[in-house]
Amino acid sequence: MSTNLAKKGDWVQVQMNILSPEERAQYLPEDTKKVPLQMRVKGFLVDEIASLGATVRIKTTTDRILSGILIDINPKYTHNFGEPIPELMKVGIELREFLAGDEK
Amino acid sequence: MTSTNDTSYDAVMSRRTEIMKKAVGIDYEEFIVEGIAFDYEKMMKEVGYSIDEVRQIQSETCVGNTPLVELKNINRLIRKLAPKGKGARIFLKDEAANPSGSFKDRRAAVSVYRAKEFGYEGVIAATSGNYGAAVASQAAKRGLKCIIVQECYDSHWRGQPEILEKGRACEAYGAEVVQLTVGPELFYYTLLLLEQTGYFNASLYSPYAIAGIETLGYEIALQMKELTGKEPDAVIVTHAGGGLITGTARGLKKAGAIGTKIIGASVDLRGLHMASDEDFNKKYFTTGHTGFGIPFAVFPDRSDVPKNAARPLRYMDRYVLVTQGEVFYVTEMLAQLEGLQRGPAGNTSLTAAIALALEMDEDQTIVVNETEYTGAGKLPSAQLTFAKQMGMVVKRGDSIKEDVPGKVIAIPQHPSQIGVIEFPVEDMKKSYLKELIKREGVRQFSDAEMQFLQEDLHASGEEIVKWMSEIKEVLK
Predict the structure, then answer these.
(1) Residues of B in contact with A101 (CB under 8 A)
(2) Is residue B193 predicted with pLDDT exceeding 90?
(3) Residue B393 has pLDDT above 80, yes or no
(4) Which of A79, B83, B221, B312 is deepest in the core (most CB within 10 A)?
(5) Contact criterion met (CB below 8 Å) for B371 and B342
(6) Cβ neighbourhood burial of B463 (10 Å; 0-12, 13-18, 19+)
(7) Which residues make Cβ contacts (< 8 Å) with residue A13, sequence separation at least 6?
(8) Taking a C-beta distance cutoff of 8 angstroms, is the pair A41, B199 a contact?
(9) Where does B68-196 show beta strands of DSSP type E?
(10) Which among B168, B176, B183 is the nearest to A28, CB-wise?
(11) Which domains does chain A have, with CATH numbers?
């Protein structure tokens, strides 16, 4: 059951601003210069209870205590194998046919 | 020195020398000769380990001694394409067999061993690549804590699938993964972490890391002698930060393979800016591309240590570029003809090897010096799905002619379309000098500095004087 509430000890993800646009390095492309440098880190919730969007403290796996905005509870991995790619689907067949031409 | 309480960008950057010295355990000042000149071999010797010591350290954590295999079906295909008498045989070093799935374990093994020996409580590495998982894996084995700092997202929180996968792998080994949005200030935050934790900087570019790769070149020379009776004629290395080419070349030489040509290969992503938020997710290779390959070759000391031990222009005989579309095609070829499903990085050099085999004689040999693990996020299907979401045109076509970084990915229609784009090494040597003159201003270099430049560029004094006068003309 999904919930918007995390309790102490839950595995969570927080987000924070590291540098605002004004604080960033001098020589940056224009598009990068206008956005902040942000960070996401996971850890165990230190606070008793918190809802998504709240500022919370976490303890990371190296025992660092960090403060940030709670963005996810038990965050899952979202990357995957992708979709079948039509432009690649026949490559193997073509190459095997090309090699088989040898034996004909 | 600014107070450690001041964590602003400028304050932390101004403390970088002190932070680095503490975090790498090397006083780089010791190796400075004068001005820009430093004693590279002394640095490699005094802080590195002998090849036998490195092999011992690596064997303790199951690193190295990976198989080297001839790609017989691909070689058959090359013979079908090659003119009479041409078509060198390709061999592949299966580095995916290392504990965390890439050659980066060799690099991490020595760094983490050193950290443990020095008594550090933990290690930190700034990397969006396989090196993160390698450091995390070695730290797990040696009982050290580990933090990996990744550049992972654009400002819309769209994560590069391959980097997300590498983050997952780091977490699997118990590391803390710090994921940042695009920007070179990743270095700032890494410095801050090093200062706050007192951990070891397991830099990709320390002498330990490079000494760790030497075993790869060493093993290739021995395995090729056993398999073919001679040293390989060429070793093709996927080139990014320069460590793989440097370490491999040094290892080959240590094993006596002095005649082997060292060829670098990168994916062509020219035109995309490395620090651009918008360009970040227009790249479907996260390493082994020109965005690292060219800048790190022309100014190695841009890295996270004062003197980079990875100095590719000392060793690189030739540099070629391949397109994204070709590498996806060859990744498919390796899986379907050789039964080896491997990640993108080594397939960059394999692509170049196929093209170069066609121009080499049939009695010659080429070694592709790495493979890496693959899977979610890393597969061509994952990257091309992402590319399409980001608006790229993906089509079949002649890659060399039709591929446009950031716009079009053309997958070859036939293996005869696999080719390379030559990037003269001499051009990079000139760029190195141009960058140097821009940093140093137009001035006379001392004899010691000129000697250093000859070594760092693997060039004669006459060549350097000639290139410098050409550059000064242009800069006037």
Answers:
(1) 80
(2) yes
(3) yes
(4) B312
(5) yes
(6) middle
(7) A40, A41, A42, A70, A71, A72, A73, A75
(8) no
(9) 68-70, 89-93, 122-126, 145-153, 176-181
(10) B183
(11) 5-76 (2.30.30)
Q: Which amino acid is residue B320, in one-letter code?
A: V
Q: How far apart are CA B214 and CA B203, in angstroms?
A: 16
Q: Find the CB nearest A82 among B180, B332, B382.
A: B382
Chain A residues within 8 A of B73 when measuring between CB atoms: 99
Q: Of B235, B412, B422, B239, whose CA–CA distance to B331 is shortest?
A: B412
The ipTM, to two decimals, is: 0.96
3-state secondary structure of A79: coil
Contacts of A67 in chain B (CB under 8 A): none
Q: What's residue A2's pLDDT? A: 57
Per-residue pLDDT tens over the stretch A40-83: 999 999 999 999 999 999 999 999 999 999 999 999 999 999 99
B294 vs chain A: nearest CA distance in angstroms? 19
Residue B223 tokens, joined: 């395995």
Whether the CB-CB separation of B336 and B328 falls below 8 Å is answered with no
Nearest CA in chain A to B397: A87
Q: Looking at residue B346, what is its pLDDT?
A: 86
DSSP run (H or E) holding A72: strand A65-73
Residues of A within 8 A of B120 (CB-CB) are none
- Tell me the nearest-neighbour CA distance from A45 into chain B, angstroms: 15
3-state secondary structure of B277: coil
Instruction: Out of B146, B184, B335, name the one closest to residue A25 (CB).
Output: B184
Q: For residue B101, what are the CA distances in angstroms to A77, B130, B339?
A: 20, 8, 17
Which tokens in the block code for residue B300? 């190695």
Contacts of B444 (CB under 8 A, 6+ apart): none
pLDDT digits (tens, 9 = 90+) for B82-111: 999 999 999 999 999 999 999 999 999 999
In the block, tokens 């400002």 appear at B155
Neighbours of A65 (CB within 10 A): 10
CB-count burial class (<10 Å; 0-12, 13-18, 19+) for A86:
exposed
> Which residues in chain A are contacts of B197 at CB distance < 8 A?
62, 64
Task: For chain B, give the percent of residues with pLDDT over 70.
Answer: 100
- Report residue B181's pLDDT band, with 50, 70 and 90 as the boundaries: very high
Instruction: Closest CB to A37: pick one of B145, B185, B383.
Output: B185
Residues 6+ apart with CB under 8 A from B465: none
Rounded to an integer, what is the distance from CA B258 to the centroid of its chain? 22
Nearest-Cα distance to chain B for A23, in Å, is 7
- Is residue B86 within 8 A of residue B166, CB to CB? The reply is no
Question: Based on the number of CB atoms within 10 Å of its own CB, is B226 exposed (0-12), middle (13-18) or buried (19 or more)?
Answer: exposed
Helix spans in B143-263 (H): 161-172, 186-197, 207-228, 243-254
Q: How many angstroms separate the CA of residue A76 from the nearest CA in chain B? A: 10
Instruction: Indicate the pTM of the whole model.
Output: 0.96
